[in-house]
Fold each of these.
Amino acid sequence: MTTRAHPSDAPDSQPGPLQVVVLAAGKGTRMRSRLPKVLQPLAGRPLLEHVLQTAHGLHDARCVVVVGHEALAVRQAFAARPQLRFCEQSPQLGTGHAVQQACPQLDDAGVVLVLYGDVPLVRAQTLQPLLDAARAGALALLTVRLAQPAGYGRIVRDPQGRVLRIVEHKDASAEELRIDEVNSGILAAPAAALKRWVGSLRNDNAQREYYLTDVVQLAQAEGLAVHAVQAADADELLGVNDRLQLAQLERLAQRRSAEQLMRDGVTLLDPQRIEVRGELVCGCDVRIDVGCVFEGRVELADGVEVGPHCVLRNCRIGADSRIEAFSHVDGAVCGPGVRIGPYARLRPGSELARDVHVGNFTEVKNSTLGEGSKANHLSYVGDASVGARVNIGAGTITCNYDGADKYRTVIEDDAFIGSDSQLVAPVRVGRGATLGAGTTLTRDAPAGQLTLSRARQQSIEGWVRPQKKSST
Ligand code: UD1
Ligand code: CA
């Protein structure tokens, strides 16, 4: 065995926090987008957020993100995470140069893990063996065997199988290009050692860049062990360079989330036809039909059924509720036991109590509906406070907007709103009141009474329908 040039790198000398450096300075030219690559959405969240989420899942990790291209936009996108640190790399002179920029923010104690902002699917459990090796004093690389290794750095080993170096595709000989074990780019090392190595990188290569991969030779030169951990699942290491790859990763991410949902006890009628763009939290025996899209944070309690082709965004649905086909639920809190749709639309601020029914072509916005109330057909309920057991007849409209301001409609418990009524807000329907069909309500309707605003019906005896005059 070779001796250690730096006793501080000896095994068990890497206590202290895990420091994660995320490389996210590259331009992402091939995306052909105004949005920086690491902000492109995957499963509804920026690529970089996936990586940060994974890092967060590693015990005690502190993150430094290296930004460069569109640095401000990237920083702003994560402004809500004050504990996240950034450093700027400008100009971008390679992956090694990127890590150099982070060095002033890295403690010498502990280990450093380097992740890529555009490699979003890597899992914490895949990284763990790297961290263990680095904690034991080694340089650890995450590698994978690929049938199509073109473009990647290749792992060059000696006849005994020890890693000698990484050669970039553009610098590789014909023989090296035949190597199918490639560098994922992800690595871990003792912090002090990595800082030392990246400080002495050179750019005498085909791309005139400071390659992070050259730390392998520097580790060898110091007699440090270099471990290559082969990932079992190549999909985890896929990067995003263009929109084709982004689409490919989207399918993988969706498959992953569908499988997790099913493992958690959710029935998906077709796991290939669900899109989760954010966080979907389900109780037990939830059943989701095909073509549904979930955005933001959606919570479905036990026994909820979602029919085909629904869109649910930032909402909470109580136990045993049913959302029928083609409904849109956005920013609503419902249930338990509600029935929504088919073809219903709940907009932000909708609160539906137990056993409420909102049926086809009914829109609810910024309104509360009390227990057991129903608006089953073709209605608009906006800025309304509706009590319990209210029946809102077909075609009822709350006229909440006068072109300048919005006003509230109050409908008290047990009221009955006849079909095709307009409630011109601000207006109140008293407890147990009935509105006759076709009422245009402009003043409050007293409790318990029938209110109607309707021209009296008349029939004219002997009336004759006009005849067309002959044109001669
Ligand atoms: C790198 C590796 C290669 C590996 C491949 C895996 C090096 C020298 N090569 O090559 O061995 O097979 O990844 O995908 O490391 N970045 C910066 N600043 C820079 C350059 C890059 O932050 O100056 C970031 C990019 O935003 C990106 C990541 O580093 O997230 C990788 O950069 P990229 O240029 O794609 O590296 P590759 O040439 O693909
Ligand atoms: Ca790349």
Amino acid sequence: MKRAVFPGSFDPITNGHLDIIMRGLTLFDEIILAIGVNADKKYMFSLEQRKSFLEQTFKNQTKIKVTTYQGLTVDFCKKMKADFILRGLRNPADFEFEKAIAHTNRKLEKIETVFLLTSSGKSYISSSIVRDVIRNNGNYTSLVPDAVRI
Ligand code: ADP
């Protein structure tokens, strides 16, 4: 079984994540959406809210599982018997950042990171921009799946 972990903060999930995840379904038998728990990071949405947004968004997708994890992503992948990490790339900054992480992960464990290029029209969407729009009372609804409502 080809199983991939898609790790992220999902604070909140955006249509950019959604696009990568749905396209990833054509490559993998199962995708585990894994919310990394980092006690030092400040989030807009609680862990429960972020998890619930993901669960609602993918409630009809039997190939998608939602969970949280602590510690190294590669250790979590091993635990889940996942040989792949799925990530999205939007721009050169993403590439440089992701490259270093993917190289490190591959040094630590025999895990391949599979990158999907953002769909044209979605590359500008990021969780941090969505949070800014929300903070300033803007209309964020076209940037996120329907489940993300405040
Ligand atoms: P992290 O905190 O690990 O950056 P995110 O939830 O922000 O977690 O992002 C998780 C993954 O989703 C990353 O690989 C990121 O590049 C990808 N991603 C986020 N937004 C988009 C987008 N608009 N198009 C493609 N990939 C995206």
Amino acid sequence: MSKKLTVPDIIEMKKEGRKISMMTAYDYPTGMFIEKAGINTILVGDSLAMTVLGYEGTIPVTVDEMIHHTKAVARGAKNTFIIADMPFGSYNTTEEKAIDNASRFLKEGMADAVKLEGGTEMAGITRAVVDAGIPVLGHIGLTPQTVAQLGGYKVQGRGEERAQKLMEDAKALEDAGAFGVVLECIPLGLAGEITEAIGIPTIGIGAGVHCDGQVLVYNDVMGLFDKFTPKFVKPYADLGDQILKALEQFKKEVEEEVFPGEEYSFK
Ligand code: KIV
């Protein structure tokens, strides 16, 4: 069993050119599988609002709900570095609120770090949370909590001005003490330039191969979420199909009195 990474270990991986793997998880068994697979880090993403709780977007999920799921993941993945996503409204108001809520993720959720969405505008809050002793992962590009402002789920950073803004965002987060930054849905060339320009790891999702690491949403990867699948998702399994087939078979066997046969009954 490998030992849990620390923030310096994660930064060192970038320096050594070792790619960082990250997968989202929302519950105990998934935490267990991810740890067994040896994936470096887990993100308890607020994507759980959609993938697990059935909301249309990430806005409605609460700190209590996020902590509930983070705790379950942490019980399943005791030796994996866990980052908890702070939900909308829990950090983007005041520094005090951000520190209080971020502390809850470490104390109650058993997370190792938190993730905040936003660039230059979130640098002050990032600095305050880091100064309170809480590691912060930034997140720029397509930031789902502000998708309405961005005009929908689409590629960010196209054009010189927008690309320049993302570069400034990444640098501001590094200066504010973030230990890494998620780059979501941006052209691969720009992601490469940002990765070169900063000393902290970039974790890409829809940002191409030049990032220092990659993250994907578990339910997308496993074929467990069929509302929409972004272009950048590579499906590695189709569990949804297998689950459906198993449930249909169970129903049929109950109706035909095939289940439970003798081997599943007591004499
Ligand atoms: O909530 C989430 O799963 C995320 C990833 C898409 C990076 O923020």
